[in-house]
Design brief:
868 residues; twelve-stranded mixed sheet; single chain; five-stranded mixed sheet; globular
Length: 868
């Protein structure tokens, strides 16, 4: 019986009926090292109260078999109590105790209890990942965020392992057969989805942080950092501890509420589906943040941002939790904003808001222009919808709007609201109205209108300057025109913006510097800016200077001309990032051609000092060439981009971050050509050297993937490289390269593995999909019909996480628009529309992916048409 998709109304009815006091969870992981052992014993004892004695409710448990259910001392018959993934509890009393014992299953999908065998040494590692609702894959529980409780965990595992959970370890008992039992202290009241267990032969580093509390007492927080043993030589826990201490000190003072969860462990785990997860007391991260190859400063900054994002969750999300997933933004938007803020204010990194504008807001702008966009406060009717809403709206748009809110109400009022919010709702659950109350009290403003316009509408406002000057170049009028349609309602909904307009002119050295600015409130469809009347027209007029608001911006014609020639001469990195973002939106909207964008990159990229921004520029350039350029222009544009990259690789400062970015880009560009083998193979074999460039393991696999994609490598060479690099990352690199060969049989085998088999773990599935999609449009088009024919089966036979990887990754979105064809008539678009029409009852989450991918393809085809 498929009853895993809990509905919002079911959750509301259950929370109205019961309140949970405590869980006692006992897990036996002693057989985890045996690959033939599919599951483990799980026993969950729950004490809870019921407001209506005699009523019934249910527990959630996705299991491999239930052995017993004992409710208030009576054993329930399994044939009536267990129905699919629900355990029914009839005849409740005012106070209840239920114990469910059964078998939970190990996972290879990154959901529930994930089991990983390290190819480097054959050792077994376990960790849990639950959000939004996969704790029920490990122990029976009431799986919804508003039924908080204290959790006490007990774990049996090999005695030589490291075992950890949310609470501190209180006792470790040696058992027979080389086993041990770990007992952990009860947690504070938290939600099921942020409980966690870690077990395996992990390497552990330790440290501590302390702070003096207002009463003079000392808050001591033990720190731990874990990674797989085979990665220990690459691990840098001291850097991680430094960022952690900086963040704890900053948030401790900022929030005026001590860190509430006792210890602060951080584990970097394999095959992780997310960047990280905010489990209190034991945060888990993707181990891609353990840099086994040379990493750029931008990569270290990104890791610091993730560490501090998760730390902000200890307050926004863990201490105070949304009642249901409609208000997911209450934790994710705040953590996204606070992570960037803490990196900027508490660490040594100086470009946090540049990175935010460059990456996070770009994600938001893309997501918010899809037909499936939604308000920040979303309508989440069930768990499948919740899973899909961990998106650019909830994270990055929400954070962008919070940044705009700070400019609107002031930073001090914003932080005072947060402090009151924590004090009033500690260990509880909240909705939008609770936050608005705190904001209104702290700022003295009625936040209802702001909420309606920013949180309860969808779509990206577009701000365009209407500039008039006299014959002497003096501004006679400037009007900001706002086009703000809500794609959900179809109505124009102009939003209030607090923004800065920057005036940029060349200095004596030719740099484009800010020579003036004005900060204004934009509201309504047209806003006059009299403050600039009578001033000389600048070379560049930049709306949203300092990136204060959330909007796409356009440029007047003269400013656009200056940017296309001289954008790289703007010394302010945030101003450059805002300009690059606006121009990329222009490419996506079809008003700047891929050829013109590449011309801009040729001028601007060599002068870009930030490795993170440079990486995005080169990634965007490659995407513009491959998706937005007309097919007849593509070969020429590839050559222009490749020549730029190779020239800059040789000219970059030896050993610099920029040199590494150029080298990685050369390898990525090599995937799209069969003729660029001399440099790629030379770097691998050492016959071509670039002073200062280390061709380490990660770069080597990128080079091998490029050679394989062009048919310029032999499988035996890839196997020899895999023998040289037996790590998990090496296996991923090999899998991608092996699926990249431009041979029909190779593509057919990769397709079979990804679509018609479930043997691959989540990480190797993604690697197979990536390798498969490196190929010519003609070769891959042979699989389009089977893609649409297989969608329903893929979705119904796999977890939503695995299915989403397949459906998203294999959508045939790389297409050419034949001359004289209207974009909407493209066969792949027609096939996707036909599938949607023929499958109106398909799960909403599946339909959403198809609609989004279809829209991305249509955008690309329109750009190709506009570029002709």
């Amino acid at each position: 019986m498929s009853n895993q998709n809990l509905r919002r109304d079911e959750a509301a009815a259950r929370s109205a009926l019961i309140s949970v006091d405590a869980y006692d969870v006992d897990l036996d992981l002693s057989s985890a090292e045996d690959p033939e052992s599919a599951g483990f014993r799980s026993r969950s004892t729950i004490t809870f109260r019921c407001t209506e004695p005699g009523a019934s409710t249910f527990l959630d448990f996705i299991h491999g078999g239930v052995r017993s259910v004992v409710l208030n001392g009576r054993e329930l018959p399994l044939d009536t109590a267990v129905a699919g993934s629900r355990v029914h509890l009839p005849g409740l009393e005012s106070e209840n105790t239920v114990t469910v014992e059964g078998t939970a299953l190990y996972s290879r999908s990154g959901e529930g209890m994930h089991r990983f065998t390290d190819p480097a040494d054959g050792r077994t590692y376990l960790y849990t990942q639950y959000e939004p609702a996969d704790a029920r894959r490990v122990f029976a529980n009431f799986e919804q965020p508003d039924l908080k409780a204290g959790f006490t965990f007990h774990v049996t595992a090999p005695l030589a392992w490291e075992v950890a959970s949310n609470g501190v370890e209180t006792r470790r008992t040696e058992l027979d057969g080389g086993l041990g039992r770990w007992d952990f202290a009860p947690t504070q009241r938290i939600s099921t989805y942020i409980t966690t267990v870690l077990a395996g032969p992990y390497f552990k580093a330790e440290d501590a942080w302390s702070a003096t509390l207002p009463d003079g007492s000392v808050l001591d927080i033990p720190l731990g950092a874990y990674c797989r043993s085979s990665l220990a030589e690459h691990f840098d826990p001291q850097n991680i501890f430094e960022i952690t201490k900086q963040g704890l000190a900053y948030f401790h003072e900022l929030f005026d509420y001590p860190y509430p969860f006792g210890k602060y462990d951080q584990a970097f785990v394999p095959e992780y589906n997310l960047g990280a997860m905010e489990n209190p007391g034991l945060v888990t991260f993707t181990e891609s943040y353990v840099f086994r190859s040379k990493a750029t400063e931008a990569q270290y900054e990104a890791r610091a941002n993730t560490i501090l994002h998760e730390m902000a969750h200890m307050w926004f999300g863990d201490l105070v939790t949304m009642k249901w997933w409609d208000d997911l933004w209450l934790k994710e938007s705040f953590a996204d904003y606070m992570g960037a803020l803490a990196v900027d204010r508490a660490t040594g990194f100086t470009n946090s808001w540049v990175s935010f504008a460059n990456r996070r807001k770009a994600w938001a702008y893309t997501q918010d222009q899809l037909p499936t966009t939604h308000p920040i406060v979303a309508d989440i009717t069930d768990l499948e919808a919740a899973k899909q809403n961990f998106d650019g709206i909830t994270y990055a748009k929400g954070a962008s709007v919070l940044k705009q809110l700070v400019a609107y109400v002031g930073f001090d009022a914003f932080i005072e609201a947060a402090r009151g919010y924590f004090r009033n709702h500690a260990y509880g659950n909240t909705t939008l109205s609770d936050l608005l109350t705190a904001l209104s009290e702290a700022s003295g403003r009625d936040m209802g209108v702001w909420s309606r316009l920013w949180l309860q509408t969808a779509g990206v406002p577009l701000l365009t300057p209407e500039l008039e000057t006299d014959d002497d170049g003096v501004i006679t009028s400037l009007t900001i025109v706002q086009n703000a349609p809500d794609p959900v309602s179809g109505e124009q909904v102009p939003r209030p913006h607090r923004l800065r307009i920057g005036l940029y002119n060349p200095d004596a050295a030719g740099a484009l510097v800010r020579t003036g600015s004005v900060e204004i409130d934009v509201d309504g469809p047209r806003t006059a800016v009299p403050e600039l009347e009578g001033k000389a027209r600048p070379a560049l007029l930049l709306l949203n200077d300092d990136d204060l608001t959330y909007a796409k911006v356009r440029f007047d014609s003269d400013s656009l001309h200056v940017l296309m020639q001289d954008l790289g001469r703007i010394p302010d990195p945030l101003a450059r990032a805002v300009c690059f973002s606006a121009l990329w939106n222009g490419v996506r909207d079809g008003i700047i051609s891929a050829r013109d964008y590449l011309r801009l990159i040729v001028h601007a990229a060599p002068a870009e000092t930030g490795s993170g921004v440079l990486q995005v520029l080169l990634d965007n350039s490659r995407f513009a060439v491959e998706r937005y350029a007309p097919a007849e222009d593509r070969s020429d544009l590839r050559e222009i981009l490749y020549s730029l990259v190779v020239d800059q690789l040789h000219e970059a400062e030896p050993g610099s971050d920029r040199q590494l970015v150029w080298a990685r880009s050369a390898a990525m560009l090599g995937r799209h050509s069969t003729s660029r083998t001399e440099l790629l193979r030379g770097l691998l074999q050492g016959t071509v050297t670039v002073p200062g460039l280390t061709v380490d393991s990660d770069l080597r696999w990128l080079l091998w993937q490029a050679l394989a994609a062009g048919g310029n490598a032999a499988r035996a060479e890839l196997e020899a490289e895999l023998e040289r690099d037996t790590t998990a990352s090496g296996r991923v690199g090999y899998t991608t390269a092996a699926a990249a060969f431009p041979e029909p049989a190779v593509k057919a085998a990769a397709w079979q593995d990804a679509v018609h088999s479930d043997d691959l773990s989540n990480q190797l599935l993604s690697a197979t999909i990536e390798g498969f999609t490196i190929g010519s449009i003609d070769m891959l088009s042979a699989f389009s019909a089977d893609y649409f024919a297989s969608l329903t089966l893929v979705w119904s036979s796999r977890s939503i996480g695995q299915a989403s990887r397949v459906v998203t990754g294999l959508f045939p979105g790389a297409q050419d628009l034949p001359e004289h064809m209207v974009p909407a008539d493209h066969p792949v678009l027609v096939a996707s529309m036909d599938w949607l029409e023929a499958n109106p009852q398909a799960p909403a989450a599946l339909r959403r992916i198809i609609i989004e991918q279809q829209d991305q393809l249509l955008r690309a085809l329109r750009a190709q048409a506009a570029g002709r």
